[in-house]
Amino acid sequence: MRIWKGNPMPPFEKSSLTRRATIGALASAPAIIASAPHVLAQTAPAPALAPTPACVLTPAATPGPFYFDPKLQRADITEGHPGAPLRMRFIVMDAANCTPISGARVDVWHTRADGYYSGYPGQGDRRNVDTSGGTFMRGTQFADARGEATFRSVYPGWYAGRTVHVHFKIFIDDKDMLTGQMYFPDALSQYIFANVGAYSRKIPRTTFNGNDELALSDTTRGGFCDIREQADHYLATLVVGVSRTVKTALDNSPTPPMQPRAIVPGVAAAKQKNG
Q: What is the pLDDT of residue 271?
């Protein structure tokens, strides 16, 4: 099995089982693929997705426990770790007027193929791997005049309790304005995990887009990327609608106290019993 590292990325192998055929089969088959001979079909590259206006805010999501700023402005975040080559393209738009936001800062972080985050202890299926000091799969880029920021990475792995995802933060004028997550098609994820050795695991994957609480909370599907097969990589595009005035960056600060749903004149808020 060929594993791809770094940049430039070598071409994919020929396959006797196409990715598209596999995806079609998954529509009427169990989610887990037992095996398949190679990793990707030889199909004509699809054209890059044209920027689509985003006149609504992209839903916020928790940053989780694994965010830190490694202060690395770089396009290639793999640090040589293996996996299916992935390009991530973020198009940052002002939700107020559908115009691109030039200069917006985009931070990304995600697991490598084996499901480990860099920089923290307690990684791996047995939570016994310490990656402290590591910075793989993390980086910062600034949006160009079209609002675009692009990263070279590998397709993210998975870990227990979560579906496949990439975390991102959008900063405008040095202010943390949006924290979100990018999600991927389950069928494609399963195909890659079954066919690329770097993703091989001893335990089965049990959390998917349809039973991940955070993915399900994205009711507008604003965090689900458009992903296309190119000649030597996958291209994932996400149009991100942000606001210059509304902060939608969730953090780990204490939850504000619950407020009464109705205010009864003359009765203290703490004494109101309105459900």
A: 47
Of these ranges, 6-15, 44-53, 208-217, 258-267, the one predicted with the greatest mean pLDDT is: 208-217
Q: Which two tokens stand for residue 77?
A: 């975040």
Phi, psi of 211 (to 5 degrees): -135, 15
> How far is the CA of 229 from the CAs of 42, 87, 155, 242, in angstroms?
10, 10, 12, 27
Q: Is 190 helix (H, G, I), strand (E, B) or coil?
A: helix
**CA-based angle 125:157:4, to the nearest 5?**
120
Per-residue confidence at 245, pLDDT binned at 50, 70, 90? confident
Strands 138-142 and 105-109, by their bridges, are antiparallel
Answer yes or no: are the C-beta atoms of 180 and 60 closer than 8 Å.
yes
Average model confidence (pLDDT) across the chain: 79
CA–CA separation, 246 and 211 (whole Å): 29
Q: Which amino acid is at 120?
A: Y
**136-178 tens-digit pLDDT:** 999 999 999 999 999 999 999 999 999 999 999 999 999 999 9
Which is nearest to 54 in space by CA: 220, 259, 272, 245? 220
Distances (CA, A) of 5 to 64, 80, 107: 27, 5, 22
Closest CA to 149 of 236, 246, 81, 250: 236
Contact of 205 with 193, CB cutoff 8 Å:
yes
What is the arithmetic mean of pLDDT over 228-245? Answer: 94
Q: How many other C-beta atoms lie within 10 A of the C-beta of residue 57?
A: 19
Does residue 40 carry a pLDDT above 70? no
Q: Which residues contact 80 (CB under 8 A, 6 or more apart)?
A: 5, 6
Nearest to 224 by CA among 172, 186, 169: 186
